[in-house]
Design goal:
Blueprint (H helix, E strand, L loop, with lengths): L14 E4 L2 E7 L6 E3 L4 E5 L6 E2 L10 E6 L2 E6 L7 E2 L2 E2 L2 E4 L4 E4 L2 E7 L4 E4 L5 E2 L2 E2 L3 H15 L4 E4 L6 H10 L8 E5 L8 H6 E2 L11 E2 L1 H4 L4 E5 L9 H10 L1 E3 L6 E3 L3 E6 L3 H6 L5 H7 L2 E4 L10 H12 L7 H8 L6 H16 L29 H23 L4 H7 L4 H11 L10
Parallel strand pairs: 4-5, 16-23, 16-24, 17-20, 20-23
Antiparallel strand pairs: 1-13, 2-3, 2-12, 4-6, 6-7, 7-10, 8-9, 8-11, 11-12, 14-15, 18-19, 21-22
Helix pairs in contact: 1-2, 8-10
């Protein structure tokens, strides 16, 4: 079953045009300074990495951002100390009109609309590798990805949990000149702080209790390929200078070792946080942020691209039951939901819907087939237990058996397993943790 969009390629818009804007300092230190936006987002603060740098000590390093969107100019405070104020009200996030005056510290800025639009290219395709989306938000990302993939620049992926940052990182790798090399994933949120240095840089025998042999870290394992550092916002502060040095010098030193090992690796990092806010909180080093922020891609949440729900739902459903169309009533139900868990939650919902409403799920693997005598049994159902509890229990039981069968079929290789069933690697890892399984690249079978 095809999941392609019905909109012909030649009829799709080739660019997104947004109302241009400028920011001008009209009061306070630096009065008269102005910045005209050339990209959709402008950041303002005292740090040199901002688009508009303010010489006001009462302003935070990364104070606020202003973005042109199809709905208007979106103002976001970036966790500043003194707040961002419009018309006497403190604003965390909201739309402002042309002519609005924004006060930060002792500085007031004027938002003004300009005659020239901000133009962003849109890909004519509704996908890039395994990534899918026909919304303008995704197609503007797809338009940039070929150039990003063919460079060797560090990439920082930002977006909420479940938006597909891991899939995006893998797609960049697969489209890059390093595709023949390894794609090594290191999840900072899944590693104990005491072990993360060894996982990143490796160790030599005897360097700590349990170090029974020399071991290469993730950077060395990714030689000739890509290292994907997931949830980098969780990296402990004391590790951040060491990572910065590795990125700057393109070399690492194993724990307990003396020799530095030269690196040949491309770095992609991801986080579900806005690292500018973390810099303001002193929870993330500014110098490491600037080193990572070479190419920054924000992956929008599903609620901001609801037009992609049907595209994704049909694709996920077709993967599970290729010969059956997605029911209209199910699609309508999916459209009405807000999806706080984003694409990952949508995929899980499709799996549950197929499991409980479509017998074709039994064809996915022998491990989930029922014995002939069990197909119509209902004497093991406890009607004293609420429906939702029974349903969740059945879902968990099937999910556990599915993951177990998948690991057995792929000899506990997580990378192969995620590719085989087209499941996001981080989602598979969360299932392994949920059911107490360990994959080969998790440190054991």
């Amino acid at each position: 079953m095809s999941a392609k969009s019905t909109l012909p390629l030649h009829s799709r818009a080739k660019e997104l045009r947004l109302d241009g804007f400028s920011l001008t300092v009209i009061e306070g230190p630096g009065a008269g300074a102005s910045f005209r936006a050339e990209m959709r987002e402008v950041s303002v603060g005292t740090a040199q990495g901002n688009d508009l740098v303010l010489p006001d000590p009462t302003v935070s390093r990364h104070h606020f951002s202003l973005s042109a969107t199809p709905e208007g100019y979106l103002l976001k405070d970036l966790g500043s100390s003194n707040g961002t104020w419009v018309s006497g009200m403190r604003v965390l996030a909201g739309y402002v009109e042309p002519g609005a005056r924004v006060r930060v510290g002792r500085t007031t800025l004027l938002v003004d609309q300009v005659n020239e639009d901000i133009c962003e290219a849109l890909s004519p395709e509704d996908g890039f590798g395994p990534l899918l989306g026909q919304s303008s938000a995704m197609r503007r990302i797809f338009a940039a990805l070929p150039r990003v993939a063919h460079s060797d620049s560090t990439v920082l992926l930002e977006g909420e949990t479940g938006t597909g940052k891991g899939v995006l990182a893998a797609a960049i790798h697969e489209a890059s000149p390093r595709a023949a090399g390894p794609f090594v994933v290191l999840d900072c949120a899944a590693i104990a702080p005491t072990l993360i240095e060894s996982e990143l840089f490796g160790h030599v025998k005897g360097s700590f209790t349990g170090a029974q042999a020399d071991r290469a870290g993730a950077f060395e394992q990714a030689k000739g390929g890509t290292i994907f550092i997931d949830e980098i916002g969780e990296l402990p502060l004391d590790m951040q200078p060491k990572l910065l040095r590795a990125l700057e010098e393109r070399s690492v030193k194993r724990v307990g070792g003396n020799q530095r090992v030269k690196l040949d690796v491309r770095v992609i990092a991801a986080t579900n946080r806005d690292l500018r806010t973390e810099v303001n909180r002193n929870a993330f080093r500014a110098d490491l942020f600037y080193r990572l922020n070479v190419v920054r891609i924000h992956v929008p949440p599903l609620r901001e691209r609801t037009g992609d729900i049907e595209r994704l739902a049909r694709h996920f459903h077709a993967e599970l039951v290729p010969d059956n169309p997605l029911p209209d009533d199910l699609l309508e139900s999916l459209r009405r939901q807000s999806w706080p868990g984003n694409v990952r939650e949508l995929r899980a919902a499709i799996e549950r819907a197929v499991l409980f409403n479509d017998p074709a799920i039994l064809a996915l693997g022998n491990d989930v087939e029922l014995a002939p005598g069990d197909k119509d049994r209902d004497d093991d159902i406890d009607l004293e237990v609420p429906f939702r509890v029974c349903k969740q229990k059945a879902s968990d039981q099937w999910e556990r058996r599915y993951v177990r069968a998948l690991l057995r079929a792929t000899h506990d290789n997580i990378s192969e397993a995620s590719r085989r069933v087209k499941m996001d690697r981080s989602h598979l890892r969360s299932l392994l943790r949920k059911y107490g399984f360990r994959g080969a690249d998790e440190g054991g079978a």
